[in-house]
């Protein structure tokens, strides 16, 4: 990769950081872990820049790196659970917009009930703005599989909302609203 290609790669990678952070937040459900995950994905993409083929879909390539890093960390971390002091402190914060906060928290919790494969496909296509083809490339499955997962995810969300059948996870309602609004802002940017 020559110097011009390196500069182009760097510019495109920097432009993708908000999208990577938003995707990481949707996977992790925790802003701090998501930022760490996105940072690790950017570092891995930079370290692997020589293997990137210029002119291909960098967004799909970096999302695949992030997704693979997420699953690798998840496999390694099943043995340890630590106390997140920051989260514990935020539980004492009050929010005055209860209706909006509750609705967003309900959506966040309902999405967490979806199987990871469905949640991931729905986030990429619904919130990330990926085409089915791009999402299939990121996930590494056939286009029809992505369409099926998105359809099932949407149907499952409707069922979950109709029955109210989702588990409360004890996260502060105000935190869910702020987190989801930041994700939506990043995706819209």
UniProtKB/TrEMBL annotation:
<protein>
    <submittedName>
        <fullName>RNA polymerase sigma factor, sigma-70 family</fullName>
    </submittedName>
</protein>
<dbReference type="GO" id="GO:0006352">
    <property type="term" value="P:DNA-templated transcription initiation"/>
</dbReference>
<dbReference type="Pfam" id="PF04542">
    <property type="entry name" value="Sigma70_r2"/>
</dbReference>
<keyword id="KW-0805">Transcription regulation</keyword>
<dbReference type="GO" id="GO:0016987">
    <property type="term" value="F:sigma factor activity"/>
</dbReference>
<dbReference type="Pfam" id="PF08281">
    <property type="entry name" value="Sigma70_r4_2"/>
</dbReference>
<dbReference type="InterPro" id="IPR036388">
    <property type="entry name" value="WH-like_DNA-bd_sf"/>
</dbReference>
<dbReference type="InterPro" id="IPR039425">
    <property type="entry name" value="RNA_pol_sigma-70-like"/>
</dbReference>
<keyword id="KW-0804">Transcription</keyword>
<keyword id="KW-0731">Sigma factor</keyword>
<dbReference type="InterPro" id="IPR013325">
    <property type="entry name" value="RNA_pol_sigma_r2"/>
</dbReference>
<dbReference type="InterPro" id="IPR007627">
    <property type="entry name" value="RNA_pol_sigma70_r2"/>
</dbReference>
<feature type="domain" description="RNA polymerase sigma factor 70 region 4 type 2">
    <location>
        <begin position="105"/>
        <end position="157"/>
    </location>
</feature>
<dbReference type="InterPro" id="IPR013324">
    <property type="entry name" value="RNA_pol_sigma_r3/r4-like"/>
</dbReference>
<dbReference type="GO" id="GO:0003677">
    <property type="term" value="F:DNA binding"/>
</dbReference>
<dbReference type="InterPro" id="IPR013249">
    <property type="entry name" value="RNA_pol_sigma70_r4_t2"/>
</dbReference>
<feature type="domain" description="RNA polymerase sigma-70 region 2">
    <location>
        <begin position="17"/>
        <end position="79"/>
    </location>
</feature>
<comment type="similarity">
    <text>Belongs to the sigma-70 factor family. ECF subfamily.</text>
</comment>
<dbReference type="InterPro" id="IPR014284">
    <property type="entry name" value="RNA_pol_sigma-70_dom"/>
</dbReference>
